[in-house]
Amino acid sequence: MAVLVTGATGFIAQWVLDCLLKENYQVIGTVRSQEKGDKLHKQFGSPSKLSFEIVKDISDTEAFEPLFKKRGKEIDIVLHMASPCHFNTSDYEKDLLIPALNGTKGVLNAIKKYGDVKKVVVTSSYAAITDMVNSADGSLVFTEKDWNPATWERCQTDAVNAYCASKKFAEQAAWEFSKETGVSLTTINPVFVFGPQKFDEDVTSQLNTSNEIINGLIHSKPGDKLEPDYHSAYVDVRDVARAHLVAFQKDTTGERLGLSNGAFNCQSILDILNEKFPQLDNTKGPEPGMGDTKPGAVFDNRHSKEVLAFPFISLEQCVYDTVAQVLKKEGRL
Ligand code: NDP
Questions:
Q1: ipTM score of the complex?
Q2: Domain 2-329 listed as CATH 1.10.3720.10
Q3: Averaged over 116-140, what is the pLDDT?
């Protein structure tokens, strides 16, 4: 039984590879270049159960065809994780919407044409459930049944909105495919994913998009403005990885698994920094805890937590492990 993980170099995907290898699965990862595959293979200790195939750009709807032509019959499970996860563009269609949508359609069409796949898990997002405006509104409650109201035209106001909408359109395409073909689909819909990088050596001055929130706070100084001052929800990357395995190990067909372990805001992260890392001096405002702690919308994911049935990592632990890894790299631990 082989599991295909698209976007294997990603922050979350590397933890998924780790879980899969620990459970002895045969794993095929897609990477954008030979060098990236070689590096990752070495980092995992060159296991024979792990191999890589090159898929250069998922914007091309046929990008997955050579891989499925060659190895489609080996693949039982597809974890589709590759998607742009950044806000560094003003060409929203080219850099966010099209790769997200075409990537999902492309892998699904290749499955239909060449594969014998039993299960598809698509890494979607809380961003497919609500938009940024609503997710900051503390009077609202969302569940796994909700959808971001974005449209293709209206979402292109800024990169954050376009990213959120890209996750909605990609996820919708996956559900349409599942309905049409009968292929078993589960989606994973995490809120902000924090946590350590899989490999210490990959800690650089700039981390992946979601961890940059914590990285920015580590390197902030007293008096700095909290910009943007997030009021949202978090989940640890190691729990997100675990959920990807549960999604195909249990019968979760048709579920949108909402992953959140509760609220965070910048001040709550700073309070952990101030308490656990006295070498940092990040207090914002006159006292720790004086920042804006108003809650964002609630993501009521009790149903998903019941399905997953494992305990989630606390914000304290998640932030501690993330910060400790950065400070270790900087020689400040
Ligand atoms: P990363 O940016 O670390 O990983 C993204 C992966 O997608 C990388 O492997 C990247 O390749 C690949 N990729 C991006 N664009 C293309 C493209 N055009 N062609 C081929 N490959 C591409 O992000 P995360 O690990 O944080 O996110 C993984 C998934 O989880 C995404 O689908 C994201 O939307 C979703 N998600 C993330 C959340 C978070 O807070 N991090 C929250 C909710 C959902 P390369 O490394 O070569 O650039």
A1: 0.99
A2: no
A3: 94
